[in-house]
Amino acid sequence: MLDLLCGVYYCPAAVRRDFWNTTRGIARPAVLYHVTLGQVKTFVALITRLFLFPLVARLCVNRVSEIAGRFLLASAGESESGPRQCAKKTCIARRAIEGLVTRVSDSSGDTSGVVIAEPTVADGAELWRIARDSGKLDLNSSYAYLLWARDFSATSAVARVDGAIAGFVLGYRRPEAPEALLIWQVAVNARARGRGVAGKMLDHLVQRLAPEVSHLETTVTPDNAASIALFDSFAKRWSADMETNELFASTQFPDEHEPENLYRIGPLVGR
Prior knowledge:
Blueprint: H1 2-5, H2 13-27, H3 37-50, H4 54-57, H5 61-75, H6 83-108, E1 114-117, H7 124-134, H8 142-151, E2 157-161, E3 164-174, E4 177-188, H9 197-209, E5 215-220, H10 225-237, E6 241-248, E7 260-266
Parallel strand pairs: 4-5
Antiparallel strand pairs: 1-2, 2-3, 3-4, 5-7, 6-7
């Protein structure tokens, strides 16, 4: 908790008061099991407000997820019978908290100085590096990213900060349904996270392809709360419905892989 308090002194009095009122119910072990999910959400939002940059709030995810993990155990009427069960619940909570932080950051991030453009073949190597360093994406060969930058640049985007690539969105229009833009991969490097860059790239890409594209599709594994929050936020900005169903079951993959759920967003009304 101490690593959160260094920013409290510099915050407005009202924010400090909200912070202490919220943490009073979370930090005490005696009332730990009385924490509500609403309090956890409020706590995450306050952390984000307490710091100048939403990126810093992400450093607090581990601490908050431990609290949320205990709450999930209690709310389900379970006991912490073993470290494996507790670790599993904490992992679930961590992903949920990451999604909440992403949602707050995406809506309030500062994207000034970010330039969105089509990728070029010269960008292919950096796209591969960002995908590799993300630690979350299925990493393809560097050759695949070079080909994508050459053949699908019109349906993809890169974000540049001070001339350097900070993130990318790779997509294509489905041949049998050209009105649908399928987003294959989205990634933002560590320096640019928490600024709403991913959301800005998605908006730019859809605006570029309108009116030919009326729907956006993507696949997300069930445990990827951050990506789900990103596309849920996109759907709300575009006043569009979002439908979800399983596209590929885990048994269809030749290796160990979570199922991929299809998210279809549309029709895209516009902004």
